[in-house]
Structures are given as C-alpha cells and as structure tokens.
Design the sequence.
C-alpha cells in the first residue's frame, strides 16, 4: 500500500513525490490494492455465513471508491439522500443498500422507496410512522429493522460512541418489544430484523460480545412475540491500527468467529456496515512544507494541509502517523506539525520527531482514507483537497481540485439574491 522503497515513499508503485509534483498539494492519495485487501478480509472471514457487506459510505464516498467496492460485490450503508444518490450512481445494487441514519426525511424515504432498497434501519417510532405513512400511501411495503440501542459501552472516543443509553441513537433495548408490537400494526411496513451499531474505532471484541448477547436474546423474544426476524444488521465499527502504541484491533476473522458463536444459531442473514476498516489505512493526505518556523519553545512545521482538509486530529485528538516523502537518515527533529488555519486547534501532531524537513518537502499523513476527505470544510476559504487513486504503477485523479470562482459564485450580494434556495 504505502511504504518506502529506498528512501522514497511510495503509494503502491508510484512515488508520492512525483504525484505531488504533478498534481500540487494538498491531496488525498488512495491505494486500490489497500481497499481491495481490506474488503476481501471481511469476505473471507464471513465465508459460510449469509452476509451482506454494506460499505459505510460515510467513511469515504468518492464515486470511484464506492464503484470499486461495488465491483467487488459490496453493498452500501447510506445515511442521507445524498449518500443514497451516490450509491445508486456508483451502481450499487439497490437490494444491497441499507438506509441508516438518525432521522430520515420524507423526500429521503420516497427516494429510497423509488429505488427499492433492501432495508430501512429505523431509529425511532415517529420515523417508523413516517415511513409507514409514505409507503402505504404509495401502495408499497417498506422493509424495516429497528436499530436497537443495547446500552453497551464500546470504550471508544466519546464523540463516536453510539450504543449507550444516553446516546441519541436507536430504540432502547428494553422498549424494543413494544416498538415491534406497534410496528406490526402499521400499514406499509414489513419487519425484517434488528440492527445495531455501538460505535466506531472499537479496539476490543468485548463490547460486541455483550451487545450480540442482548441482540440474540431480543431476537428470541421477538420471534416468540410472532415477528418474522430473519436479518441482523451488526453495524460497523472495527478499529484500525493508527499507532503502534494503541491496542491492536480485532481482526475480521476474530470478529466473524464471535458472530458465529453468539448469533450463528439464530439462522439469520447478516448485514455488516464496515467503513473505517475498509478505507482508513488505504489513504494518506499528502502535503507540502510551506515554512519551518522557530518558535520560542518549539519548532513548527507549517504544512499546506489544514484542519479543514483533515479534521480528525483537531476534532478527536486523533494520532496519525506522519511519513516524510523522502527519508534522509538524519537524527530527526521534534516538530509541532501544524496547518495554516487561524486556530491553535489546527495541529496535526505535537512534538513529533521527523527527519529534518525544509520548505518544499512533502509529507504524508497516514490513516487518512476514512473520515478524511468526507469531513472536509471550506473554512478559511480553502479549496477542498483533490483525490487520487493509485493502482499499481498507474493513477487517476478521482476528484479534481475545485476552483475559486465556482466557489465564490455560489454567493450573491444583496441586490442579486433571490427568495428561494
Ligand atoms: N454504521 C453506522 C450506523 C454508523 O453510524 C457508522 C459510523 C458505521 C456503520 C461505520 O463505522 P466504521 O466501520 O467506520 O467504524 N468521524 C469519526 C467516525 C464516525 C463514525 C460514525 N458512524 C472519526 O473520524 O473517527
């Protein structure tokens, strides 16, 4: 995927410095082989189980990446009308699309019914009632699973933990039977199963074991209540190894074995929604050193990528390895690696030892394939970083750098503004 050949940093067989010189910086660079390998790990691990691997588009929704995964056989987990449109445009089969997300609007529900998606993961009774109203009004039947909140602590960052009772997600597991009873009375609704998702960047199987136990009990209860439960959506969440200092994440094999042990006896079809673990390590953000600045207490490496391009370090305090595009074998210098945005939070790393850098050198921020480009903003009127996909010794630009005029042209001065959006 990404490794040194000699002292040069390569994406597969393409030298990253050559890409940077050809395309300008900053840019995201993805490895096709990296994505494919990660996907195949799930496919292999779940062999023998009836599973749909629905890639969570939120991790990285570039059309080329969705399309690549669709060609490999993946379905999609979408959380908005926008993501649903992306999945359909990338030719993901509608019967492999699950629509999750906290609050689907009427137009989104209609779009999904038009497309004939596999399943809605419903997060509240009012949402269920809206789906029922719309589907019944069109003489259709929506296939639904309630997202169950199992009240399990996934022991991950508080901002990405989703399965505790105080989190906004899903139906509390203790009131699930009543919700299903109500669902069974509604027109336009076919109950197919249960869904869960307890968080992201999960580094232990224990929370899954706990949640799967609750789900198994619930499926038995729901069946006893007369509901035809044949699908369990397990959500996403397996973590990745961003740093050598963190616990290593469970493998897809270990995860699939746990599914077999805890849920295998239920004779269900499974859906999994991995995002991060498919794309995170298959992407880097390549940036150029603008200046090296001597502070009174620190050396700042000021690079041309910023928090608007890649939010994870400032938003979650996330560690990301930074690899120089050229190693020089020197003793190394401790830098604070920062971007040009006017906030102290615009910091990628503090006190990070790197080979001595000079203006014009390139660095790659690793583990940036997931929740990187998709979380970019236009803060400081910075243009979103383009994206490049490498395959072997070839590459293609899969998203162009926008231009300033089209960005600024979205705004109107008072006299030119209209009354509708
Ligand atoms: N399914 C559901 C319902 C989800 O909410 C998520 C992620 C996934 C699947 C995919 O989870 P994954 O396999 O990627 O862990 N921006 C944050 C991560 C937010 C995750 C939100 N939900 C970050 O950069 O760490």
Sequence:
């Amino acid at each position: 995927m990404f490794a040194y050949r000699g002292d040069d940093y390569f994406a597969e067989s393409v030298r990253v410095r050559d890409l940077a010189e050809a395309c300008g910086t900053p840019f995201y660079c993805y490895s096709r082989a990296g994505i494919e390998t990660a996907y195949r790990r799930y496919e292999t691990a779940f062999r023998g189980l009836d599973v749909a691997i629905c890639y969570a588009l939120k991790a990285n929704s570039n059309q080329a990446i969705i399309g690549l995964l669709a060609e490999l056989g993946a379905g999609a987990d979408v959380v908005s009308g926008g993501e649903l449109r992306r999945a359909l445009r990338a030719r993901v089969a509608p019967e492999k699309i699950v629509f999750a997300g906290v609050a689907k609007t009427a137009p989104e529900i209609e779009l999904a019914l038009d497309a004939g998606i596999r399943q809605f993961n419903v997060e509240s009774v009012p949402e269920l009632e809206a789906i029922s109203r719309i589907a019944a009004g069109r003489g259709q039947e929506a296939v639904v699973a309630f997202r169950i909140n199992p009240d399990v602590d996934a022991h991950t960052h508080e901002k990405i933990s989703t399965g505790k009772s105080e989190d906004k997600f899903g139906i509390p597991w203790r009131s699930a039977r009543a919700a299903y009873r109500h669902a069974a009375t509604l027109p336009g609704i076919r109950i197919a199963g249960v869904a869960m998702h307890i968080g992201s960047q999960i580094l232990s199987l224990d929370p899954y074991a706990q949640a799967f136990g609750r789900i198994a009990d619930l499926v038995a209860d729901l069946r006893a209540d007369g509901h035809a439960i044949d699908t369990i959506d397990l959500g996403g969440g397996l973590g990745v190894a961003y740093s050598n200092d963190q616990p290593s994440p469970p493998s897809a094999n270990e995860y699939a074995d746990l599914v077999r042990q805890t849920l295998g006896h239920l004779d269900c079809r499974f859906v999994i929604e991995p995002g991060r673990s498919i794309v995170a390590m298959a992407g880097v953000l390549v940036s150029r050193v603008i200046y090296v600045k001597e502070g009174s207490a620190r050396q700042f490496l000021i690079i041309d990528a910023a928090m608007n391009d890649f939010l994870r370090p400032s938003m979650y305090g996330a560690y990301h390895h930074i690899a120089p595009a050229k190693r020089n074998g020197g003793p190394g210098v401790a830098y604070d690696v920062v971007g040009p945005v006017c906030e102290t939070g615009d910091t990628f790393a503090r006190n990070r030892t790197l080979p001595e850098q000079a203006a014009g050198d390139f660095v790659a921020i690793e583990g940036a394939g997931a929740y990187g480009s998709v979380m970019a903003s236009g803060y400081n009127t910075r243009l979103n970083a383009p994206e490049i996909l490498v395959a072997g010794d070839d590459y293609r630009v899969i998203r162009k750098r926008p231009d300033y005029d089209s960005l600024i042209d979205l705004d109107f001065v008072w006299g030119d503004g209209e009354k509708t959006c």
Q: What stands out?
A: The chain has a mean pLDDT of 96.
